[in-house]
Amino acid sequence: MRIPVINHSRHPLPEYQTPHAAGLDLRAHLPEGPVTLRPLERQLIPTGLSMEIPVGYEAQVRPRSGLAVKHGIGIVNSPGTIDADYRGEVRVLLVNLSNENFVVNDGERIAQLVVARHETISWQPAEALSETERGSGGYGSTGKA
């Protein structure tokens, strides 16, 4: 699949880091210098990228596992969705869940982008739903840790 992209940063376009990776790494575009995230602070970090996602697909912005485990850095609305009709700059809503400041540097890999197909649905009003073993059991209802 080919996706039109405009790169306003001086960084390379996102790349897969391994041959079978699902996500491409997004980099911070911070021409005015590093951004410091204090504990529990969140900030929108620009990437300098705008793209044209095909109709029937979305781009999901997801956290990088290395930043999460090593530094407590996550994404508040994970996964963030980039819809097919959005043409603005992709920005990543990072949050610092650690007890220490974290510095985001220009060009640093801050998130990953996964492009996925989705369906458009229409609701079918019903009076009842089919029975299942689980039924209406929600969080923790399966009894497994």
From TrEMBL:
Gene source species: Hymenobacter saemangeumensis
Cofactor(s), by name: Mg(2+)
EC number: 3.6.1.23
Domain of life: Bacteria
Protein name: Deoxyuridine 5'-triphosphate nucleotidohydrolase
Residues that bind substrate: 64-66, 77, 81-83
Family statement: Belongs to the dUTPase family.
Pathway where this protein functions: Pyrimidine metabolism; dUMP biosynthesis; dUMP from dCTP (dUTP route): step 2/2
InterPro entries found in the cross-reference section: dUTPase (IPR008181), dUTPase-like (IPR029054), dUTPase-like_sf (IPR036157), dUTPase_trimeric (IPR033704)
